[in-house]
Amino acid sequence: MTRLARLLVLQLFFLSPLPAWASAAEDGRLDLTAHWVGFTALVLFGLAYALVMAEEFTHLRKSKPVILAAGLIWALIAIVYADHGMNHVAEGAVRHNLLEYAELMLFLLVAMTYINAMSERNVFGALRSWLIKKGYGLRKLFWITGALAFFISPVADNLTTALLMCAVVMAVGGENTKFVLVACISIVVAANAGGTFSPFGDITTLMVWQKEIETPQGVVGFGAFFALFVPALVNWLLPAAIMSITVPNTQPHAGGEAVVMKRGARRIIALFLLTIVTAVSYHNFLHLPPVVGMLTGLAYLQFFGYFLKKTVHLEHGMTRYQFLTLTGDDEQLGSLPAFDVFNKIARAEWDTLLFFYGVVLCVGGLGFIGYLAMASKVMYIDWGATNANIAIGILSAVVDNIPVMFAVLTMMPDMSMGQWLLVTLTAGVGGSLLSIDSAAGVALMGQARGKYTFFGHLKWAPVIALGYAASVATHMWINSALF
Questions:
Q1: What are the beta bridge partners of residue 183?
Q2: Measured between alpha carbons, how far is residue 199 from residues 98, 156, 275, 294, 463 in Å?
Q3: Cα separation of 430 and 433, whole Å?
Q4: Per DSSP, what are the bridge partners of residue 332?
Q5: What DSSP string runs through 255-322?
Q6: What mean pLDDT do residues 104-123 have?
Q7: How far apart are CA 109 and CA 295, in angstroms?
Q8: Given the DSSP bridges, would you call strands 30-31 and 214-215 parallel, antiparallel or unpaired?
Q9: 129 with 175: CB under 8 angstroms?
Q10: pTM higher than the cut 0.70
Q11: 261: closest CA among 273, 248, 270, 252?
């Protein structure tokens, strides 16, 4: 083909009338899978996600490329639909995606605010100090930090849990590189596994719960996730048992200062548990979105924060009159400001929340174009649900589990409750196969730099994969009635 012919082909491809490239689907949407807009959207998402995966090396926040890609993808879609006189179809699709994002974002924002409030009240610092002061041996500490990561992550997010346990490991055994490596791997696997059997443990489980998926066995409700407890435990326990053999049973030096929880810490923990109960009750009994219950729970913290602010003098053993006489300010004493709930909201992980926005809009756009319907047919019809869901977990070791799970929920394949729980399990624990594809793994590579590394984790990947396979087999065995 001559150069002129190639130019003519390119001109026809990009400038030919749009109706020749876009066919209307049965639901009124245009099938853009073979259109240049569809191909361009795939390239944009691929480039954006390549930058996300390279965040550790580029130090470019992961939210930036996906937000840009989301805006460009929907702009291209809108141009095509406007050319067909279907402006409001694309607008309605975007609004639907925004509603899904808003519900999840506000839910996570409340959870992050509570976690930040507990951190400011020294809840996690006191736990870390207590563990260090106990003077446990390295092997015992290996098991304790892994077990705590497994049982704390269903309530707190896996990132906070992993950072807390890693701080204990570094404080006690920081000079022992081999111990730090296997302890960090155990923490990452445990935190990811623990997050799968609770709707509050991971964004993917929260997404499945809020979607109110109906199956022949009923709705995948709050209680359904606890069927994953044993498979999740196997996912962590099997690799941990093998890795523990390499941990020396030596007694490290226990040091560090004791950390005391600040006034109101226990009451904030109780309010967080009450907030979880409120969210579940609103969803199960009042049939309202869980986010309404979570925001109601945020009001609990706001009122308690007001109480702490007005009684800040008690934290310093003074009467209100003595405090005002000394400071002239009823909200601050020197460098110790009173509790302010809005500071805790401001400290939320906004990069993660905005990354989530970009993912929802990008994947929503690709689904609106028609690619997810194609993928759903190949995976869930040609391969079968079980093979597809196991593959989803392996894919989540390379691609973040948020877009993977959102893609599955957008496809909405017709599956049993057992299959929905299987994909929840695999998407949650699949990220443990590599250190770079879970928030916990990436964070610990920074916290234990030089000791917990990508290649160090990779050496144990076959053992982690054994736990992955065992957890899948365990789920299909003990929950066989749900398939």
A1: none
A2: 21, 11, 14, 13, 27
A3: 6
A4: 337
A5: ------PPTTHHHHHHHHHHHHHHHHHHHHTS---HHHHHHHHHHHHHHHHHHHHHTGGGGGT--HHH
A6: 85
A7: 9
A8: unpaired
A9: no
A10: yes
A11: 270
Q: Which two tokens stand for residue 367?
A: 């689904």
d(CA 219, CA 4): 59
Element (H, E) at 467: helix 461-478
Find the farthest-apart pair of alpha carbons in the chain and give their distance in angstroms, rounded.
90
**Cβ count near 285 (within 10 Å):** 8
CA-based nearest residue to 232, from 206, 266, 193 = 193
Confidence (pLDDT) at 327 = 57
- Residue positions counted in the chain: 483
Q: Alpha-carbon distance 317 to 315, whole Å?
A: 6
Q: What is the mean pLDDT of residues 328-333?
A: 52
Query: Is the pLDDT assigned to residue 249 strictly greater than 90?
Result: no
**Any idea what DSSP says for residue 314?**
G
Going by C-beta distance under 8 Å and a sequence separation of 6 or more, which residues neighbour residue 54?
60
Question: Facing residues of 30 across strands?
Answer: 24
Predicted confidence band of residue 13 (pLDDT cuts 50, 70, 90): very low
Q: What average pLDDT does the segment 398-412 reach? A: 81
Distance CA 467, CA 206 (A): 23
What is the enclosing helix (H) or strand (E) of 350? Answer: helix 350-369
Rounded to an integer, the average pLDDT of 152-179 is 80
CB neighbours of residue 316 within 10 Å: 14
Radius of gyration in angstroms for the set of CA atoms belonging to the chain, rounded to a whole number: 25
Q: Give how far Cα 306 sits from Cα of 119, 255, 264, 275, 334, Å.
A: 18, 36, 12, 17, 19
pLDDT of residue 67 exceeding 90, the answer is yes
CA 276, 419, 405, 452 torsion-angle sign: positive
Read out DSSP for 145-194? HHHHHHHHTTTS-HHHHHHHHHHHHHHHHTT-HHHHHHHHHHHHHHHHHH
> What token pair was written down for 64?
């930036």
**pLDDT over threshold 80, residue 335:** no
